[in-house]
Specification:
Mean pLDDT: 85
Distance between the termini: 76 Å
Oligomer: single chain
CATH class of one domain: Mainly Beta
CATH topology of one domain: conserved putative lor/sdh protein from methanococcus maripaludis s2 fold
CATH architecture of one domain: Beta Barrel
Low-confidence stretches: 369-382
Radius of gyration: 45 Å
Strand order of the largest sheet: 2-11-14-13-12-15
Order of helices and strands: HEEEEEEHHHHEEEEEEEEEEEEEEEH
Length: 382
């Protein structure tokens, strides 16, 4: 009897443990929630092919179109003038930039002029006797001879005998020697070839200037040129007279320029062609760095998009019935941020902004609105 009761209790205990375990297992088996299907909202554009202006970006620094490097052809001490020889100093056309002490050389010029005068005076008695018909013009020449002024031109010799007589006395050779000395004397004063400003001064008043020494640089402000190097593929697209839009690095100021010269040869090392853009503006300075946009040509039946929308293999995403798809395109020009494409049918719906993780067959929700893009982006972020 006792064994029977114990057996029944053991069976009941086993059955109870089994049912208790089932209850615990059912409580721990939670149902996984079904994930909601997320459909990304995307910005779209509708392609409408047209003529696209291909703009070639270039950059460079400005150089004054009229500039002179000042060198000395004589030697002497730099004398103080009416204006200091300093960078930023303005000079008018014909105004003296540099005066070099020429007192010693001036004395030698005056001596040569005096010798010429004496040589002509010495032949006057012979001219009166042998060539009375030319005596008066040579007498007038002596009367107008001033040692403090430039040597006047010799009277024109009208006969062969007169020519032989004057030349045989060494008058002509002395005259040209004096004129040569006078030309060199003029080099002791360096005058401004045009109205402008001094941008570099390598000497100061009182310093000794040597022959061949560089003294500074002088420019005409307001008219500058910018040299730009472009790929040889654009050689046939550049035309003299082409209008160019320029801006500074900060893109706060814009200027208008024109292509004035195009180099006729291509650099063999870099395979680039050089063009020169002229720009006029009083606010510009030499050495200023500018960016230029050259209008190369118009590409017909093309469309322009951002470069980050291009896929590897010359493909782009399009939207068909709210599903992303991929088509092949033909890029014809790349810039830093844009790409010009062909072979896109009119009316094709393409992405206006890239989507992270996009793939062909992805379900999307097209979004097109006229409101500000920043507001649209805020909505998508939410």
């Amino acid at each position: 009897m006792r064994k029977t009761i114990l057996s029944l209790l053991g069976v009941l205990l086993i059955v109870g443990a089994y049912f208790l375990g089932q209850i615990i297992i059912e409580k721990n088996n939670r149902k996984r929630p079904t994930p909601e299907k997320v459909v990304k909202t995307v910005f779209i554009d509708t392609v409408q092919n047209s003529n696209v202006n291909i703009v070639i970006p270039a950059n460079g620094s400005l150089v004054a179109k009229r500039r002179v490097e000042l060198f000395s052809e004589v030697q002497g001490v730099f004398k103080t003038g009416n204006k200091l020889f300093r960078p930023g100093q303005e000079f008018r056309n014909g105004e003296t930039l540099i005066r070099i002490d020429a007192s010693e050389y001036y004395a030698s010029v005056q001596s040569a002029k005096s010798n010429l005068y004496n040589s002509i005076a010495a032949i006057m008695p012979d001219l009166r006797l042998d060539f009375p018909e030319v005596y008066s013009k040579w007498q007038s020449y002596l009367n107008g001879f001033d040692l403090n002024k430039s040597t006047p031109k010799l009277p024109e010799m009208t006969s062969e005998k007169e020519n032989f007589f004057i030349t045989g006395r060494g008058i002509v050779s002395n005259y040209y020697s004096v004129k040569n000395l006078e030309q060199r004397l003029a080099k002791y004063n360096i005058k401004a070839p045009f109205s402008g400003i001094l941008t570099e001064a390598l000497v100061t008043e009182g310093s000794l200037i040597r022959n061949g020494q560089k003294l500074g640089e002088f420019i005409f402000p307001g008219v500058y040129e910018m040299e730009v190097a472009l790929s040889k593929s654009y050689a046939s697209l550049l035309n003299v007279g082409e209008k160019v839009d320029l801006n500074n690095i900060d893109k706060t100021e814009t200027y208008s320029g024109v292509v004035t010269r195009v180099n006729g040869s291509i650099d063999a090392t870099t395979q680039t062609i050089t063009a020169f853009v002229e720009v006029k503006n009083e606010s510009l300075k030499e050495g200023m760095y500018l960016e230029a946009n050259l209008n190369a040509k118009q590409e017909p039946n093309a469309y322009e998009i951002n470069r980050n929308l291009m896929l590897d293999g010359e493909q782009i995403f399009i939207v068909r019935d709210s599903i992303l798809d991929i088509i092949d395109v033909q890029p014809v020009y790349f810039s830093d941020t844009k790409v010009v494409l062909k072979n896109i049918p009119n009316g094709t719906t393409i992405l206006a902004k890239p989507i992270p993780g996009a793939y062909a067959g992805m379900l999307v929700k097209p979004f097109r609105s006229n409101v500000n893009e920043e507001t649209n982006q805020e909505k998508l972020n939410k």
